[in-house]
Give the backbone structure.
Amino acid sequence: MSRAYSTDRARTLLLFLGLVAALVATAVLALSVGRYGFSVGDILGFLASRANLTAPDPARDDLLRNILVEIRLPRILAAAVIGAALSVAGAAYQSVFRNPLASPGLLGALGGASFGAALALILGLSWVAVQGFAFAGGIGAVALGVVVAGLFGEASTITLILGGMISGAFFTAALSILKYAADPYDQLPAIVYWLMGSLASISLTQILWTAPLMLAGMAALALLGRPLDALAMGEDEARGLGVPVAALRYGAIAAATFISALSVSLSGMIGWIGLFAPHFARLMVGPGNARLLPASALVGAIFLIAADTLARSCTRTEIPIGIITELLGIPAFILVLRRARKGWM
Amino acid sequence: MTARLAAHALVFTREQKRRVLDGATLAFGPGEIVSLLGANGSGKTTLLRLMLGFLRPEAGAVALEGRDLRAWSRRDIAKRVAYVAQNHVAPFPYRVRDVVLLGRLPRAGWLTPVTGRDFESADALLDQLGILSLAERSYTEVSGGERQLVLIARALAQGARLLVMDEPMAGLDYGAQIRLMRLLQDLKQKGLGVLLSTHHPEHAFWASDSIALLEQGRIAANGAPHDVLNAEAIERLYRVQVKTLTAPDGRHAFLPE
């Protein structure tokens, strides 16, 4: 057996075990932190009692159950799934577009989702409808971008980016119209808050419904890891390696758009993570997508759980999580870029 | 001669209605090196891309092993014909070995995990090309000449017997150019076939079994270097005056007047 191979495998295994351990630790910490603080011992005791390893503490079991399972767990699960999905989508976009600056918003998905959400808020629709409109807006904006790209002739990375920019600009303009037309006393603040992102109103049911879809989208992209590597090397490179370029590109864009639109529809706008987490993961496991996509998922999940915990516990009132991801994401991104730069220049 | 890749009377027009190829016919097979010469913009890359099936000709046809290219799946083509791009750059720092491992994609499929044996065969190919020491280096950091070798190693990992190379000498220093031509001749001895485009008449003269001249969308001449490549041909192709020097071993070199 090749020594290089054993070293490579051992290193990768160790990195992934480390990431999983960090994810579990972050989640347990996030469970304990909040307006009502618990010790990590309380959390572990509660988890052990739920697993029937120990007898529940009769005096505090209800309280623990209420706060942990009803309030904090849904947010932590949501943060994990959404952080993972946005990061995987960003990593996939970066490979498809051969561009380290690509992120889930590149083709207009986030702009379209914002417009959809704002429209539903102005129409005074229910929360579920806001999410549905946001999802539809995200998908619709990318679809429009792809159609516009088709007007430029032969579809390529550049025409798709241009199409996405045009579509994104259109939806941003449309969003401005909605903001202008919105009632400044209740609708406008609702739109603005939505745009800043929050995991506060996600229920456990919603997560249990959407998580399988998002995991399926992420798994599909991870399975396309190797052909995505070929595509990241270039279109002709991929063709020369027997990869059907158009089918792979649109398939990957569809899956990445699906999971990012779904994420944003649940949480509102959460920026930066889809750009920054893949770079961080790339520094750890290298650019090969078969490893990069799962690693990005773990990094994104850890990062968003941490950001959401800060969002809900830093100050007396909750800070919108989009602000936190931007504030934390920018310095983290600068640090990562200092090291990643040499890879693509 | 069944394993040949053959283009017949290809016609191709670019978006600006400029007819790039107008009846180009060219073929090569295992055990031979064919050089394609032509001025900038003469359609060399287009011809190569058509022969690889990356583009569809408006008229004419490409056949691989006697069967129309359109009847082949892209993956089956990739098992037989490998493509080495011109001045290739990667946006992400893949390691050299990982680039070579991409060559197993057409045969192993998308989902088969990389095994220790794959590592060994990739390293064996790198060793064969004298660049094993680069295996763990980033593909974005090695020199242009080394990148060409990495791409050739990947092509060999594909198991393809035919190589299509777009200006492999471009950007290489003189030594790397000569070493690359030697390598191509070694590969030819092992039964591989190479079609390359080049701007170096001397290299073409020295290393090729035949030379094809692409002029005004057609292959104006195609044959043994001595028969095809002379001062008049160079003047026609590149619009410069040259004089021919003949080396003692009979090879020709060209000097600008």
